[in-house]
Design goal:
There is one protein chain. A hairpin with a 4-residue loop joins strand 3 and strand 4. The chain has eleven helices and four strands; from the N terminus they run E-E-H-H-H-H-H-H-E-E-H-H-H-H-H. It is globular. By secondary structure, the protein is mostly helical.
């Protein structure tokens, strides 16, 4: 059953979009990420303009993340104080990111910026995650002992002002690093349509050294606020949010995220990181390849550009 998307100005299969939302929602709940890094490229491959895909699927990220946070809250796996600091930075980053996104659209370079952002961020982070996970799997298969974890946090964390206690995360550090991570997530949310979890989760684990049990839930909580603000700003400032597209993706995402969160504890951590790293790397490479492929239509008017 095809349905017309008024802002995207294309017709798509409605059941397919719902299934896509459910699948990405499942991945979101399973890995503690917003899922936007996967959703936006798939929508673009389906023929939806990149600017509309990036802005419209942000509401799906909000819905799937909210569904996941409910599950993690029941497990006491959310540090709301840490998530609140990150969300404050996310709001600031989203405001700046939306304005930058608008400028790129007016210059006709938005599609290029989106593709480059996916290629650089996803390619680098996916490659590093995959490398680390495969090394851990190989060590386990060979019966080699795991390297001693580096429990010491970077010393610069203790030299910064505005130190705060985060009991749930087991931290007493400056609020500046979490705030900065939130700003970065907000910018990426506006430009790439992602929640930033693929950056936040590794940073929370390896830089802030948060307790692993609260990292996923806290990341999802931050993503809810940041992407919700991004969606509102994109809708009002750039008019690129397609409510029909958003609603279909949202419907499937809420259901999928619940199942993903329930399955999260049934897999080894290194296997999960390896799969996530591979997915991130492949999506980044595919988006990068779009830069070198001749488009089917050389001249296309982007909807909503004033």
């Amino acid at each position: 059953m095809d349905i017309y998307l008024p802002i995207a100005e294309v017709s798509v299969n409605a059941p397919l979009l719902i299934l896509l939302g459910a699948a990405v929602g499942f991945i979101s709940g399973l890995f503690g990420i917003g899922g936007g890094f996967l959703m936006a490229p798939v929508l673009i491959f389906m023929g939806i303009p990149p600017t509309v895909a990036v802005a419209s699927q942000a509401s799906h990220v909000v819905a799937s993340s909210t569904s996941g946070v409910i599950t993690y809250t029941a497990k006491k796996g959310v540090d709301y104080r840490m998530g609140g600091i990150m969300a404050l930075g996310g709001a600031m980053g989203a405001i700046g990111g939306v304005e930058l996104f608008r400028l790129m659209r007016l210059l006709g370079q938005a599609d290029l910026v989106v593709a480059l952002s996916y290629l650089i961020f996803l390619g680098a982070i996916g490659g590093l995650m995959l490398k680390e996970s495969l090394e851990a799997i190989i060590r386990r298969k060979k019966g080699l002992p795991a390297p001693r974890p580096q429990n010491r946090r970077p010393m610069w964390l203790y030299g910064l002002p505005w130190r705060m206690k985060f009991p749930r995360s087991g931290l007493y550090i400056s609020a500046i690093p979490p705030l900065g991570l939130g700003v970065l997530a907000g910018i990426l949310s506006a430009i790439m349509g992602v929640g930033g979890g693929f950056i936040l989760v590794p940073a929370m684990l390896y830089v802030l050294r948060m307790r692993a049990s609260v990292v996923v839930g806290t990341s999802l909580f931050q993503i809810i606020i940041t992407t919700a603000i991004t969606t509102v700003l994109q809708s009002g400032r750039n008019q690129t949010v397609d409510i029909v597209l958003s609603s279909l993706l949202l419907f499937g995402g809420v259901v999928g995220a619940q199942y993903g969160a329930r399955m999260a504890g049934k897999f080894r951590a290194e296997e999960m990181r390896a799969v996530l790293g591979l997915i991130v790397l492949l999506v980044g490479i595919q988006m990068g390849l779009e830069l070198f492929v001749r488009p089917a239509e050389m001249f296309v008017l982007a909807p909503g550009v004033d």
